[in-house]
Specification:
Helix content is about 40%, strand content about 15%. It is an alpha/beta fold and about 400 residues long.
Length: about 400
């Protein structure tokens, strides 16, 4: 993903050279010359099949004219082998479908597809979870005086889709709308609707994924034999020294849980660093599939820290540990949207031994605060842990029309 961010910067210059095409397609759509036929999807900068847009696609692909667009030829082939409609973004077929798109649904930004083809195509951005730690404009000073950045600000006025954060509709599942200020300059409207990926934790939607992934199949077998699947899924650390500290804590956690044969310890790195992940202990079972939700569904307990996955996991009522060994550092940089020491006081652990002891109590002695988890979630988010929508494309389009 880090390499992908660099690639997107280079792509901006290429797309800028195609400015006439951007306005040509917008004009033809505006006068009704280009019919709108397809619901196009993308995720992770066009590189992976993950997140809310993935699960919206799976929920709607049989009822609507849904097509997955990717910059990865191998991913396009893989998805077509599964029977999905998926095309390489720069192929003739992929470009054709994007030109005739009715709506674009993305998870990480306009560069999930080809932004230069999107003028007057409504863009709905799910992003990838409601944050705990502050992001974007809430952390960085966007009023830069650098001349180069000023030029790009002017370019974004001419071609708004070249700003990866641009969207016509931005989905925020939180009640207090954390994203409202962060993306305000780039977003026209906000939709408060549930996240499609949450359905996967409470239904059989991702059954096919579980059967295909060999690690998931192995873990299901171990769980059926009475093992408890412990998943460690921390957020990323930007500095190398902080990443080394994370690796050290990972090793300590693994040692504690591996000494008890009732537990199976699984590590899932953050998607930003997953491509360069290098665990210090080769004996640690690492889940490398970019989509963590099949793993979370079969897990017995989750260990995380400041990741939005905590909020997704709470409605499952499964044991949860917030392993915040560097909480004092994160409190000041970048800071939190919530008073986590107060909100999660029953779940925060600062030492690996505390994590082990708490999850042991909850899993072996069956001593957990399941109702508390549901109450925290309900006070912060829409009730999206049932099978109610709106996840259906028709409902989404209706909401978009209402917002207009």
């Amino acid at each position: 993903m880090i390499n992908l961010f660099k690639q997107n910067r280079l792509r901006k210059y290429l797309y800028l050279c195609l400015l006439p095409l951007y306005y040509l397609f917008g004009l033809l759509r505006g006068i009704g010359f280009i019919p709108r036929k397809y619901i196009i999807y993308g995720a992770a900068g066009g590189s992976k099949f993950i997140d809310n847009s993935k699960y919206s696609f799976l929920l709607n692909k049989d009822e609507y004219n849904c097509v997955w667009i990717t910059h990865s030829s191998s991913l396009a082939r893989e998805l077509r082998l599964k029977g999905y409609r998926a095309y390489l973004s720069y192929s003739i077929k992929g470009i054709f479908i994007q030109i005739f798109a009715e709506i674009a649904i993305v998870s990480h930004g306009t560069f999930d597809v080809i932004p230069i083809l999107l003028f007057k195509v409504p863009v709905l951005q799910y992003w990838h979870g409601c944050p705990i730690k502050k992001i974007g404009a809430d952390v960085y000073n966007n009023n830069s005086n650098k001349f180069g950045e000023k030029i790009w600000d002017w370019i974004y006025i001419l071609i708004p889709h070249l700003n990866n954060y641009y969207s016509d509709f931005f989905v925020d599942n939180s009640i207090n709308m954390n994203y409202g200020r962060t993306f305000k300059p780039f977003v026209s409207n906000y939709l408060q609707v549930p996240y499609p990926r949450l359905i996967t934790l409470f239904s059989g939607l991702n059954k096919e994924t579980e059967n295909i992934n060999p690690i998931i199949a192995e873990l299901i077998s171990l769980k059926s034999s009475g093992k408890h699947i412990i998943v460690y899924m921390p957020t990323y650390r930007e500095e190398i020294d902080e990443q080394k500290k994370l690796d050290n804590q990972l090793t300590k956690l693994f040692k504690l849980f591996s000494e008890d044969d009732r537990f199976v310890f699984v590590y899932k790195s953050h998607f930003i660093v997953s491509d360069i992940s290098d665990t210090s202990n080769e004996n640690i079972l690492e889940y490398t599939n970019p989509d963590p939700y099949p793993l979370l569904k079969i897990s017995s307990a989750l260990i995380s820290d400041y990741s939005s996955v905590i909020f997704d996991y709470m409605p499952t009522k499964k044991p949860l540990s917030i392993f915040a060994y560097d909480i004092d550092l994160y409190k000041d940089n970048p800071g939190y949207y919530y008073d986590i020491e107060k909100l999660f006081s029953s779940y925060i652990n600062r030492e690996p031994s505390e994590v082990y002891n708490m999850l042991y109590q909850q899993l072996i002695n069956e001593d957990s605060n399941r109702d508390e988890q549901i109450n925290i979630f309900n006070n912060l988010f829409l009730p999206s842990y049932n099978n109610k929508g709106p996840y259906d494309i028709a409902e989404i389009k209706q909401l978009c029309e209402i917002k207009k």
